[in-house]
Structure formats: C-alpha cells, structure tokens
Known about the structure:
283 residues; mainly alpha
Amino acid sequence: MVVEGPGFGDVVTGWQLDPAALLTTVVATAAYGRGVLALRHRGHRWPSQRLAAAAIAVAAMVVATQSGIARYDTERLTIHMVQHLLLGMVVPFAVVCAAPMTLALQGGRPGTRRLVRRALRHPLARLVSNPVVTWLAFGGGIVVIYLTPVLELSARNTFVHLAVHAHVVTSGCLFLSGLVGADPSPRPLAHGARLLSVLTAVPFHAFLGLALLSATTPLAPEAYPSLADQRTAAGLLWGMGELFTLAVAAVVVRQWYVADQRAAVRADRRADASLAARSGRPS
C-alpha cells in the first residue's frame, strides 16, 4: 500500500511558526543562559557536557514544534511518532542531563535559590517524584494516548494536542530526573532501584509497538487511516524505545560505577586516617 500524504521533502521544508512553543523555548533558554553567565561572573565554569545537553534539548524542541514535523504530525502517524519521540524522550533526556535545578541553586539569586529549595521540600514535589507515579505517568501515559480515543482527539483538537505534548515532556522529565538527572531529588533512588525502574519501562514500548503492529484496522481511522503508516510508526516506536532504554540504562550503570569508585576512595581515606590516628602519626 502506498502511503499518501506529506513526504520527507515536505517535512524538511515545511517549517512554520508555533508562537507558544517558541516563546516557551526562548524563555527557558534565556533563563538557563543567564544562570551560566552568573556562574561565570563568579569565577565558576558550568560543565561543557551540560551546556551540550541544553543545546540538544533546545534543538530537539525547535525541530519538534517548528519544523515540518509539527506541521504534518496530524496527517501521518509516522510523523506524529517522530514528534512524540523527540518530545517524550530526546527533550527530557537532554533536559535532565543539563541539570537546570542545580544551575538555579548555584547561579541563581538568593530569592531563586530559596524558591527552588522550598519547591523541592514541598509535599507535591515528593508526590510527583515518587518512582511509582513517574513510572506510571511515563509508561502508562503513552498507552493511554495510543490505545484510547485520545489519539484521534489530539489530531483534531488543538487544546488536547497541546495537553498531550505537555504530558509527554513533563512525564519524561519527571521519570528521567530520578534516574539519570544530576539535580537534587525529593526522593533519591539507589542506583540498583534506578536500573530496575529503567528496565521495567521496556514492556510499555514493546506492548504498544506490538499492539500497533498487530492491529488489523487503524487505531485512529479518521485522523490516521493508513494501516501501513501505522505499522511503520509502530516499528519506529518499538525500535527507538529499546534504544532509548539502553541509553538510559548505560548512563545509570556509569553513574553507579562512578559513585562506587568515589565511595571506595572515601573509605580508603577514612581507613588511612584511622590507621594514622592509632599509630600516633599525622594522617
């Protein structure tokens, strides 16, 4: 079956302005840049890898909301899926690696730092950072979007469309912040629990990808009538979901290793100090 609709060339050249998304991106970028400059004025340098992560987040957000992907995402499910992967995986992963909360605590004004600390101690912050809540919001959310009328409705209703975008970005950030984020968390997890949380998110992508692939009729026939397009989108979700899981798991394992190495160094120093104290020698 030939899938009718916009092609690759249309997506590449079909840029359009989304004022709300662009304004949000510009404001967030400006705030981040201001924090980096404030640190520099104090003689501190913000890590280059976090700057690179912030740049990736901005680029992915712009492509997802201003390019032909945004223009044609309601016409082909494959294009919609590319946008979903950018907003729900790439942007959140880059954002949490950019450590914006840590930047606010280090480079912000006293009022900003107090506000961030107060927010981190708030009961609502503890609720939304609960691993079970974030796991369900991230994994269960995509199941609800694609296996209920929400998919059809989001293609026809602007407000529902924006709500879906807000959900995938927010749930992705909350889920990943407790796993690979450098920012302080109201509910810090041990590295073993982080890895388990990542791996248990795999079935969501596999289940949804299999459901889309095995369906004999389009899930949203009015918005996305092509079954071939739906199967392409399913393969994209399944494959990229697995790659995303491996990438996050690799970061968790690396952080675990680094944390263990630092703990071993601290233990060695304490042991050396204790031995020196017992022998009457300065450490």
